[in-house]
Design goal:
mainly beta; 15-stranded mixed beta sheet; 15 strands; about 50% strand; Lipoprotein
Length: about 230
């Protein structure tokens, strides 16, 4: 499954602004849909988005995109998804490598659990060719500081807890990202967040990966996000 492979810069400047961490109840239900608006969609044209699996020619799910660029995709379940699940470490390691990140020690509560992870959807139409789009939002605080908020979706076949840390490297900086995620059977939404800045004390970067119930409706192409982070 393709994730954010073309976007190596995303691995550092991931973050959200605002108050304290969101508290998600352990029994919060699984996610059933993915929705949002593709920002550069050409008004008045229609198209589609698709969640591609390990076999790109066989999408796991698809949905129409309306003339304003908005969509709502129903997340797939059942044998088609189960057939493409892998061990939790394997699916996370693949995602980490696509984000220019490496594991710095992750613990999975049930080694037998299986899952599937995705960051992007494949969009077609809207005045452009096929491209990967991701739920992402960038905030800059002057030329030397930036924050980024992104979403990913993780499917697991049972309750599992993933904790530990990953390291994400770009432009010579390493950002330690703390992971603390508890799943439910089915899909959950992940918030990938961090901050990066240069100050009098030198460069600093940090972030978290947690479960969230909060949508991020802004969907950008990988090229758009990459340009924003340059």
């Amino acid at each position: 499954m393709r994730k954010l492979g073309a976007l190596t810069a995303l691995s550092l400047l991931l973050a959200s602004c605002g108050g304290g961490p969101e508290r998600v109840p352990d029994n919060a239900p699984a996610e059933t849909t993915v929705s949002g608006r593709i920002q550069t969609w050409q008004s008045g044209t229609s198209g589609s988005v698709a969640l591609t699996g390990l076999l790109p020619l066989v999408p796991l799910a698809s949905a129409p995109v309306d003339a304003a660029g908005s969509f709502r995709l129903t997340l797939p379940t059942g044998p088609l998804v189960e057939a493409q699940t892998r061990s939790i470490p394997e699916t996370l390691e693949q995602g980490l490598s696509d984000l220019n990140c490496t594991s710095a020690g992750l613990t999975v509560s049930d080694p037998a659990a299986r899952g599937l992870l995705f960051f992007t959807l494949r969009a077609e139409g809207g005045g452009a060719g096929a491209r990967e789009v991701a739920a992402a939002s960038l905030t800059r605080s002057g030329p030397l500081s930036a924050s980024f908020d992104a979403r990913a979706w993780l499917y697991t076949d049972r309750v599992v807890t993933v904790t530990g840390r990953i390291n994400c490297r770009v432009a010579g900086l390493t950002a330690p990202i703390t992971v603390n995620v508890k799943t439910v059977p089915g899909w959950i939404k992940l918030k990938i967040s961090a901050t990066g800045s240069y100050g009098f004390g030198g460069p600093s970067a940090s972030g978290t990966v947690t479960r969230t119930l909060t949508d991020l409706n802004t969907w950008l192409t990988l090229a758009e996000v990459g340009q924003a982070l340059q």
